[in-house]
């Protein structure tokens, strides 16, 4: 007897945006792994270009100097959610892009339109070549990078919860100082002219303050499955 062919599920594109510490990376990785999708951390790409600029002595107080070298670094993102990678000119920078120095400087670099144009193009080409689909997380994915995404999620959480989560990761970091640093980055990312951090009109907002990570993952997986079922 012939077995009926099962159609491969269509590639699904999921955009997850929100400020720091709302759970974007942990949720996106887990959802992608559970659903067999690729995963892209766009913040890591902005951190990588910032790392290159710091290493090459670029004056990060000067947007013209940043714009002039926006195309120099070759950034490659590995999109396996079980082992996401990021290299700059062939060097693994997964560790160095998480230093306090890069974190404090990334908003100045990511605000420069030439940097955004370059990284946005890279993100779109990665997303369109993901055969089974992809979960892309960042700040402007639903609004600018992938406005036609099948599902858009905007994660939020209280400033206190976000700071507690972040300082938990940076062992020994002061919660109050972490909260202040987050507020400063939120302000810079939300007030820049080009493609600021914002919720897309058609994004589903999920407040994660009182939810466990597992609950957030389940919520997003359910929303993806509902989309696929055409609900
Ligand atoms: N709902 C949650 N409840 C408690 N901790 C969480 C939750 N979501 C994420 N975390 C933890 O908070 C930290 C920051 O999460 P992360 O996914 O890196 O956030 P983002 O990518 O938005 O900055 C991680 O240590 C993660 O395990
Ligand atoms: N789509 C994106 C993603 C990140 N970014 C920038 O990159 C920075 C680092 O992003 P991230 O996602 O690694 O930040 P965390 O949430 O991990 O702290 C942000 O503060 C933004 O300045 C952006 O401008 N657009």
UniProtKB/TrEMBL annotation:
Residues 14-225 form the Cytidylate kinase domain. Pfam families: Cytidylate_kin. It is an enzyme of class 2 (transferase). Keywords: ATP-binding, Cytoplasm, Kinase, Nucleotide-binding, Transferase. InterPro entries: Cytidylate_kin, Cytidylate_kinase_dom, P-loop_NTPase. Belongs to the cytidylate kinase family. Type 1 subfamily. It catalyses: dCMP + ATP = dCDP + ADP; CMP + ATP = CDP + ADP. This is Cytidylate kinase. One of its GO terms (molecular function) is kinase activity. ATP binds at residues 18-26. Transmembrane segments: none annotated. It is found in: Cytoplasm. Its EC number is 2.7.4.25.
């Amino acid at each position: 007897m012939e077995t009926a062919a099962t159609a491969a599920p269509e590639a699904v594109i999921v955009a997850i945006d929100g400020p720091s510490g709302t759970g974007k990376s942990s949720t996106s990785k887990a959802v992608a792994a559970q659903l067999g999708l690729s995963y892209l951390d766009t913040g890591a790409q902005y951190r990588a270009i910032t790392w290159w600029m710091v290493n090459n002595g670029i004056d990060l107080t000067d947007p013209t100097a940043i714009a002039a070298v926006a195309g120099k670094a070759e950034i490659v993102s590995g999109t396996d959610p079980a082992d996401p990678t990021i290299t700059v000119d062939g060097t693994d920078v997964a560790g160095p892009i998480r230093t306090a120095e890069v974190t404090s400087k990334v908003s100045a670099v990511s605000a420069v339109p030439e940097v955004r144009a370059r990284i946005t193009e890279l993100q779109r080409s990665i997303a369109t070549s993901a055969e089974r689909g992809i979960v892309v997380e960042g700040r402007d994915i639903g609004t600018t990078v992938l406005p036609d995404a099948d599902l858009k999620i905007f994660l939020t959480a209280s400033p206190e919860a976000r700071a507690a989560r972040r300082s938990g990761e940076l062992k020994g970091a002061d919660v109050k100082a972490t909260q202040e640093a987050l507020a400063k980055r939120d302000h810079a990312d939300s007030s820049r002219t080009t493609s600021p951090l914002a919720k897309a009109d058609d994004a589903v907002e999920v407040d994660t303050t009182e939810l466990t990570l597992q609950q957030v993952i389940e919520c997003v997986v359910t929303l993806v499955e509902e989309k696929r079922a055409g609900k």
